[in-house]
Amino acid sequence: MKRRFYLDSNVFISFVREEIDKAFNLRFQESMDFFKLCNQGKHEVVLSKLFFAEVQKITALKKELVLEEFKRLEIEIKETGTMPDEKLAFEIVKECGIHYSDALHVAFAIGNKADFIITWNRKDFEKTGKLVKCLTPSEISSNL
């Protein structure tokens, strides 16, 4: 079954920067494994304006280069056209007690009917589980 994944920027950033976490897990490799799972139309990856802004801030990669990389990886993407409902994001902040930027990611995911938020910062989204499920790239294959 084809799934729709809202991608948090840290997954792509870990891939690009070839990051390894404190426990010596190869985050870049696990991110690549997730991207392989998504390639060739098996699943759809949702990217937001916030995703592109965060990637550019951390890596200096502009949107066009990011899109080229997804094309090279043969990953079907859906770009979100507009910002999410700010009222919804504010309600998520109040209800879940998370940062506004994380609430925007959740609102983007909800507005684009994502099945999951894929992130390395799962802890940031734990309180939003009743709105949209959050998984790390390494957890996704066991949840499909």
UniProtKB/TrEMBL annotation:
<protein>
    <submittedName>
        <fullName>PIN domain-containing protein</fullName>
    </submittedName>
</protein>
<dbReference type="InterPro" id="IPR029060">
    <property type="entry name" value="PIN-like_dom_sf"/>
</dbReference>
<dbReference type="InterPro" id="IPR002716">
    <property type="entry name" value="PIN_dom"/>
</dbReference>
<feature type="domain" description="PIN">
    <location>
        <begin position="6"/>
        <end position="130"/>
    </location>
</feature>
<dbReference type="Pfam" id="PF01850">
    <property type="entry name" value="PIN"/>
</dbReference>
